[in-house]
TrEMBL record:
It comes from Crenothrix polyspora. It holds the Pfam family PDDEXK_2. InterPro entries: RpnA. NCBIfam families: T_den_put_tspse. This is Transposase. It comes from the Bacteria.
Amino acid sequence: MRFLDVKTDFAFKKVFGSERSKPLLINFLNAILDYTGEYAITDLTIIDPYQAPTIKGMKDTFVDVKAVLANASTVIIEMQVLNVEGFEKRVLYNAAKTYAAQLDKGEQYTLLNPVIALTFADFIMFPEQRDTLSRYKLLETQTLVHYSDDIELIFIELPKFTLSLDDLNNIHDKWIYFVKNAGKLDYIPDALIVEASINEAFGIANEAGLTKAELEAQEKRHDFIRLQRGSIEKASHDGLLKGRMEGATEKALEIARNLLDVLDNATIARKTGLTEAQIKALR
């Protein structure tokens, strides 16, 4: 068997945002968010994750999966494989926009319900933190008392998740393993097949059940990601090279400044690699 790479937004939407996804999305969110007992999600509605801008000039909002829970809270889920500039602000923008969009003009603020933004990142966002999962809320900085629980940002950094199949202790770990590794597997591991919802997710992600158009869409998404990653790596390499060159030039200029009182321009230029025009400008 071959499975979709769930780390692509196409596959993530296919698995968690399709018509048949509701039961497994409930299981997935309860496991990832650690909702148990009275806090467990018992029902939800999967809705169109696209939001048109309500304010002229603001950007459209795209998330991969959006669901309204039985308690009226909204969960927006995004899978991000590229570490693009401003991504952390986009997550906050999406959450704030979803929160504000609940009210029509003139309605009371008391009608606002909580919004949870759950983000899977296939890169390191918070290098100072060791844990795979991190949660952010509005807090008072001295006492850490909550100002409000109405907007919560939750991040799962997949590169930090390094557990093997033998080390998966609970349904939380198993779901993260599925998201990170499904595209690399050619069979359903025993540790995962015993979980009914994860087994169902593998069934949706099985390429054998996809149409030709869906397979082509997935491959196009892979090609786009490969091109973008190449561009990002090249930009990073070029920036590093430029920085090294600028550093070398600055060092040469510093040496030249120290030689101005003892050597002529031509000699300093030969010893530092600078031009005589640069030496003249230093004088």
